[in-house]
């Protein structure tokens, strides 16, 4: 029993992330990689990328979940040992974003598996990504019985619209889309 607790404590000190690209534009993937570079250095917090879901603690899913990628995404998630934490990064796996309603989009990932943390944005800022994986680590600790579950984080104005618990990040500070920017220019 004591050895079990020691192993749990040690495993949460160095969580391994497995990234699944469900058909993204690679914007979120580039931001995730930037988090691991020396500028943001998420590795100082113990986070490492792994190439196999069998060694992962936290799964990060990017891109809209398409009908073609859905079986592969679910297969990869099923290979991650319990307890695991699933994080959606960007607007696409959360809602479909601009691809919502398309014939090829299977819907948000939360329709098929329990999502623990949502990192909002298109593409999310590196700071929001770090906040999301740290929240995922807290969720993982709670699942292992090493702490309490984190409080849900809601953005201003989200209390009434049913935003999922664990949502982090926002688009403030992002550039407006080109069409809206052009219409406001003149």
Task: Set down the secondary structure blueprint.
Elements: H1 2-11, E1 16-21, H2 27-36, E2 48-49, E3 58-62, H3 70-78, E4 85-89, H4 92-95, E5 117-119, H5 126-144, E6 167-168, H6 178-185
Overall geometric form: globular
Mean pLDDT: 76
Query: Given the structure, what is the number of helices?
Result: 6
Largest sheet: 6 strands, parallel
The succession of helices and strands, N to C, reads HEHEEHEHEHEH
How far the N terminus sits from the C terminus, by CA atoms, comes to 69 Å
Q: What is the CA-atom radius of gyration, in angstroms?
A: 17 Å
Class by alpha and beta content: alpha/beta
Main β-sheet, spatial strand arrangement: 2-1-3-4-5-6
Number-wise, the strands total 6
Strand content: 5-15%
Query: Which percent range fits the helix content?
Result: 25-40%
* Spans of at least 5 consecutive residues with low confidence: 157-166, 171-186
């Amino acid at each position: 029993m004591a050895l079990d607790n020691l192993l749990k404590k040690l495993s949460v000190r160095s969580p391994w992330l497995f990234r699944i690209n469900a058909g993204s534009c690679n914007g979120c993937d580039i931001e995730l990689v930037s988090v691991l570079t020396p500028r943001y250095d998420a590795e100082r917090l113990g986070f490492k990328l792994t190439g196999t879901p069998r060694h992962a603690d936290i799964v990060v899913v990017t891109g809209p979940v398409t009908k073609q990628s859905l079986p592969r995404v679910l297969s990869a998630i099923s290979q991650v040992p319990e307890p695991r934490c699933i994080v959606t990064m960007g607007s696409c796996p959360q809602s479909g974003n601009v691809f919502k309603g398309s014939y090829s989009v299977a819907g948000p990932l939360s329709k098929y598996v329990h999502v623990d943390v949502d990192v909002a944005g298109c593409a999310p800022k590196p700071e929001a990504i770090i906040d999301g994986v740290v929240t995922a680590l807290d969720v993982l600790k709670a699942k292992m019985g090493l702490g309490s579950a984190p409080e849900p984080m809601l953005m201003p104005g989200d209390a009434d619209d049913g935003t999922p618990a664990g949502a982090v990040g926002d688009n403030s500070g992002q550039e407006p889309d080109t069409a809206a920017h052009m219409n406001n220019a003149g």
